[in-house]
Every structure is written in C-alpha cells, then in structure tokens.
Task: structure prediction
Amino acid sequence: MRYVTNLPYATKEDEHVTIPMSDGVRLSAHIWRPTSSDDEPVPAVLEYIPYRKRDLTSVRDSIHHPYIAGHGYACVRVDLRGTGDSEGVLRDEYLEREQADAEEVLAWLAEQPWCDGDTGMMGISWGAFAALQVAARRPPSLKAVVIASFTDDRHADDMHYMGGALLSDNLAEAGTMFAYGTCPPDPAVVGDRWREMWWERLENTEPWVLQWLRHQRRDDYWRHASVCEDYQSVRCPVLASSGWADGYSNAVTRLLGNLDVPRKGLIGPWSHKFPHLGEPGPAIGYLQEVVRWWDHWLKGVDNGVMDGPMLQAWMQDSVPPSTAYEERPGRWVGEPEWPSPHIRPVTRPLTRHRIEPPQDPAADPAQQRDGDAMTVQSPLSVGQFAGKWASYNAPPDLPYDQREEDGGSLVFETEPLTERLEILGSPSVELDLSVNEPVAMVAARLSDVSPDGAATRVSYGLLNLTRRDGTESPEPLEPGRRYRATIPLNGVAQAFPQGHRIRLSFSTSYWPLAWPPPKPALLSVHENCSTLTLPVRPVDEPDDVPPNPFAEPEGTPPITTRQVTPTEERWEVKRDLVGYHAELEIVKDRGTVRFEDIGLEAGRRAYERYTAVADDFTSVGGESTWTMRFRRDNWDVRVVTHTELTCDEQDFFVDATLDAYETDRRVFSRTWNEKVPRDLL
Result:
C-alpha cells in the first residue's frame, strides 16, 4: 500500500464526540473532517460498528477515514450502543434499537454546522450490514452507501445457517461478540463512570449463541433487517464489494440483480477484508473508487463513476490447494448487467461417478433414464480440511487438498477438459435422492483437479434435506422415499485449464464447518436423474475492462503501535487412533499491542476447539474462548469468555462462563447452562 499525506484538504480530528440518543444514551464518535468545513460545510460519511474505535480498529480506521476526510468529507466512526466508549448495552446484532440509533446519528450529523446536510454510510461486515439495513429505512439525509462483505439475507446466507444447516461459525462469532460486548470503556475517555458502564454490560449480557439457536427456522427474527425481504426499500445508490474467499461471496450479485437504484459490484479474490487491504492479493485502489463514488453521489461531480460494467470480478486461474495464498493469479472481467447476457447455464448429467458432457438444454432431467443408485454414508472426518466458512486469513483458513475429504464422499468427475473452461456465478446441483433417516444433510463440493491428482476446492454448498422446500417449515424425511433437491453453491469466478478435471463430491457430514445431523445417514443418489449446472462464461467473451482497471492501493499512514508480546497462530488437526478422538484446534492470538498515542496496551486471544469421537454424531462439540485485556498505568482489566456447544439426538447444550478481572482479581463471574431443542437439525 502507498501511504499518502499530501491530500486536497487539510484535516483535523476529534477523538471523542458524544452524540445523544432520544432515550438519553450517548454514543461515542471519532470525527475526521476538513479544517475548512468550519466555514464550508461538507457531506458526512458514517461507519457504525461495535469493534472499539479507540483501540482495536484504530489502526485500520487511521488508514481510510483520514484519507476520505482529506478528499473533502467529514468521516465519522461511531461505536454502537454498549461497545467501546458508547453508553448502554449491546444485546444482539441488528436490532431495531441499533438501527434507530443509526438514524438518529445521521440526523445529528446532518444538522452539524460543518455538514452540508447530506450523508453516506460505509463499512465492511457489520458496518456494511448496518449501512444496507439503514438504507432500507430511507433516512432523509442518506444519499448513498458503500458496503463490503455483507449479506442481504440473515438466515440463508450469513454465518449462522447455510442451506438450513447450522454452521460452526454460529458458535465462533457468538464467542467473538460475547467478548467484545463485555469489554469496558476507556477511563481516559469516559472518566470515573467507566466501571459503572462496564458493570451494566457485564450484568446484562447473555451469550448470543442461545438466541441464534432458538431460531433454527427462517422466522421474523431473521426476516428483520434482511433486505431481501423487500429490495425496493433501498432507494439510494449502492457500491457493493466482496471476495471469493469470503463467506459473503453471494450478496453482491443478488443486489445487482434485484435493486433498481444505481449500483455497482466488485468481487475480488479476497478474504474478509477491505479491497485496499485485500488478502489474497491483488489488493486494489479501493479508497480511490470510494472517493469517486462519494464525489458523484454526495457532491454531484460528473466523474463517470457509473460508466463501464455493472460488475467487475476477478476471474481466478487454477492454483494448487493451499490454506493461504499471498496472491491469486487471474484477471479482471466485466459484466454489463446482472444476470449477465454473457453467461449461460450449462447442465451436465451425473452418471456412475461421471460428470457427463452438457445435455440438451430442452431436456427434462426428470425424464432421463432412471439409473442405479449410488450411496454414501460419510464419516465425521470429512470436513476437517474444509477451512472456515469465511476466510479471515489469520490463521490460514482456506480449504486444503480435497483428496482426503473425497475418500469419505460420493465423487463424480469429468474427463480431462479438452479446452479451458471459465465459470462466473453460482453453480447448482439437482439431486434425485433418498435417505434412510428422517434428518440428513448433504454437502456438495466443486473442485479443480490437476493432472497430478491434487484437488482444489472451488465452491461448495450445504443443504439440510428437511429444509429442501424452504427453511420456514421443515419436514422430516420419509426413509426410502425419493426426493428432488436443489443445492446452490457459493458464487465464484474460476478458470479450469485444459487437461484438468472438474470434480463434484457429496458427503453426508461436513464437520466442523457444519453441525452434523443427529445420526449418520445413508444417502442414495440416482444417476442420470441428477445434474450439475455451471454458469459458463465463454473464454472468447471480451473482458470489457482494461487489464489493470484499478490503481495501486492508497491510504493515509497508520497510527503508531508497538508489538509488546508476540502473536501466535495455530491451526491443527489431531487424531487419536486408540480412542478415535479427533479435534481441530485454532488459535488466533494478536499478542499485546501498545497504542503509543494514547499510552494503552491491548491484547486479544481467541481459541477454538472442535471435537468428535469416531462416528458418533452426538459426540461432536465446539468451544470458543476469548481473552481481552486492556492496561494503562494502574488500570489493568481483563475479560475472559468461554462458550461450549454440545448435543445429543434431541437437544443442544450451551455451557458458558463470563469472568471479569481488575489487576488479576476476579470481580465478576456468571455461568449459563441451558438446553435448546433441535428442530430437525
């Protein structure tokens, strides 16, 4: 990244500004704005997240907010109610109170003498969720949003459930927020009230995994703040981005296809990162694109920002399997609209372990010759090389070589390709199937197989078969009865070289990425009646973008920090062949970092562990432990959260603890032991 200091506008910043809410709670904001805005008001851009502006996001914030402010905007970074230095309690994600607060913040910004009355919202992950959800509420000052790594569907395409199957990230991310939501504010900002504010958070917190498990179907809890329920509610322009290695690779194209406002989409090879910080690379000059977006929609500059393709996507070349990549080779391609007229669905029948050449588009798969059934009952070991639902790139968390996974799967494969094949969009699988249990799941994996046999996972999808007709009203399966089920796979842009094979693999477990059903299930797939459909982009189709359409990444120099204690990253798969115990252990320890400008030391350590014994599907369990520590002079506080999730055939069991310390003396402790019934899950 190129750090720049010579920007069009000189800026100033206010590190702690309080914004009053209608119920008396005050939120804390950090504001960067042009010095000249005292006399010449400018538009305001809000980023609204719960991850502590004072310390834990301050390095990242210092790269992009001063940069945008230096181009003529008031950039405002607000801690959500109950986080960082804001008052109150954060009780769950995306609640009505959170969104109402955002509207009040925008109204406050629009009324400031340094703001010209127009606002925008931007962010990644929670910040992008917030921006899109608030856009759907149409606050009068909000004129445009810029969002990265988000979803428009909180139940079907978020870290909670996928295809009606429970994701382990449901536990992991609940553990993250259990820790972040119970940290104290900084006494240097809020003064002597810090302990009172901390106590309010500690006493009013519940592990969010309980709430998320209580809603295993798509219901009003998930419909709230899911913009897919009414795309027409969004009336302002949207610049949306994500990465193929992220868990949120699908929402960009859904927005492009369903919104009817000015919109642009951008999908790179990245994990859960802003595109200017994108890993795997190449990272791009994203902030320059963001400034152009704001210049046009907030200042009315005629800069051609809407010219060119609606979607720009990184077409990934073939790579060997690896849990991390510094760069993904490929090229940018552009599509004029979405769905794109350049992309055609190509359907291939599945026969005995073969993916056959494309069939006649007019053919009805249900009318094909009924073939024999092929069966699989996967061991719990399938999924140990799946990586994370969303790659966070720390530690390396992409899927590894799929050959070991394929040993417990039902595999179909093409002949070696006679020419290069490229896909862009969401593959899908239609299965004619039966199972021998009332609750069963299918994991479908699409892989690129090189001539030496190495298999790189390209995309995957999950389906809880009790939700084959929708996640609102699941129904148990009738053992032995034949069903048709469609499994959508995550969107991707991928090139398969000549001489490689395309492999499709099915398994009946995918632990620990997804929670397995109560019992092992035998899946029968009928050949000839089952198909794979690929979104093929012809290789001779023009790319419609220059070879290098984006500038080098830019940002302002980050604030000064010092690593006090070392980081630790670990991702280990362990197997005991005596007791048949298997586990995946993940450590993400950021060490202790000193923020020199505020004299604060902060430490974060996350530990995850997922276990199983042999093929006992009720033996699976997950745990998430977080330690958060903050220290300055005589102020030394620590929060330790621990959450365990286990099950039997009928219920989930949540055991959690919350402990808070001052100078290593425990000052607060609470324990939860609760049971949540399994709902055909």
Observations:
- The chain is about 15% helix and 40% strand.
- The chain has a mean pLDDT of 96.
